[in-house]
Every structure is written in C-alpha cells, then in structure tokens.
Amino acid sequence: MKKILIYFLLISLMVTIFCFSNEPLYSSSHQSSRVINIIIDIMEKVSNEKFSIEKRERYVQNLSLPIRKLAHFTLYFTLGVLFFLLYLEYHIELKQLLTLSILCCLLYACTDEIHQMFVFGRNGSLVDVLIDTFGSTCGIFVMKLLCVLQQKRIRKKRITT
C-alpha cells in the first residue's frame, strides 16, 4: 500500500511538472507574478505600508527570476524525496539508492527542458537542469540524513533497553 501511495505521489508530481512546463511563457510569467503579488501583499501588511504601483512593479521585476528558480528547486527537491522513498521500499543498498534517485531526477530534468523547447515562447535551459538536479539532490540527501538519524536512534534505543 505504501509503494502505491509513493507511486501515485511521484507520478502526480511528474505530471504537475510536465503541465507547468507545457504552459506558454506568458501564462507561466503570469503565475509567477501572482505569487509575487501575494508576497508583496504580505510585505505591505508586515511593514504596515502601502506600496506605490512603481514599487510593486520593481518588486515583481526583481523577484520574478528568484521565485521561478525557487519553484524549480522546490518541485525537484520533492521529486528527489519521492524517488528516494520509492527506492527505499525496494530495499536497495544505500549507495545504489542515492545514485539511482539522483540519476532519475537528472534524466527527468533533462527531458523536462527538452520538452520546453517545443512549447511556444519557452526554451530549454542547462541552468534549470542544474537547479533541478541540485534541488533533487538536496531532497535525497535530507532523506539520507533522516534515515541515518533514525537508525542511530533505533540502535541507541536497543542499547538502553
């Protein structure tokens, strides 16, 4: 049952990434602007200040690229976690599990960027592949760290009982 849930989440995330990549540039930019405007609204509330239209536009312009790259990192961080969890269910040796998880994320990042080359207004980007792979690798190594910590906790519990 656990494997089925992981497969479902993994495939759902991959479809989500595909759908985001399939959006034309203007649609993708519009989504980024909506997210940034939500952030700006929060900034206004926190600072108790109403920003001018010019200031809002500057924030949108300055935050657009970092928000888009953070989205890449976050989606692929999650993808790395899910691949790690999936291969963990198959009781694969840790070194192979890490390699396989990173390789799958890298390949998906490459195919995602190739896919974008066929979408109106979009192009493939090596930088995005690197950000995606870095994000997924971070997710995978966070999971590895959690596994190591859990194993230590289990060993310590056995020793004390």
Annotation field: number of helices: 5
Give the end-to-end Cα distance, rounded to a whole number of Å: 32 Å
Q: In this structure, how is the largest beta sheet organized? A: none
Number of individual domains: 1
Order of helices and strands: HHHHH
Return the structural class: mainly alpha
Instruction: Give the CA-based shape.
Output: globular
Rg, nearest Å: 20 Å
The overall pLDDT, averaged over residues, is 92
Low-confidence sequence ranges: none
Strand tally is 0
Helical content (DSSP H or I, runs of 4+): over 70%
Portion in beta strands: under 5%
Which helices and strands appear, and what pairs or packs with what?
Layout: H1 2-21, H2 25-47, H3 53-89, H4 94-116, H5 126-160
Helix pairs in contact: 1-3, 1-4, 2-3, 3-4, 3-5, 4-5
What does this entry look like structurally?
It is a single chain. This protein is mainly α and 161 residues long. It contains five helices and no strands. The chain has one domain (2-160). Helices cover 86% and strands 0% of the residues. α3 (53-89) packs across α5 and α4 (94-116) runs antiparallel to α5.
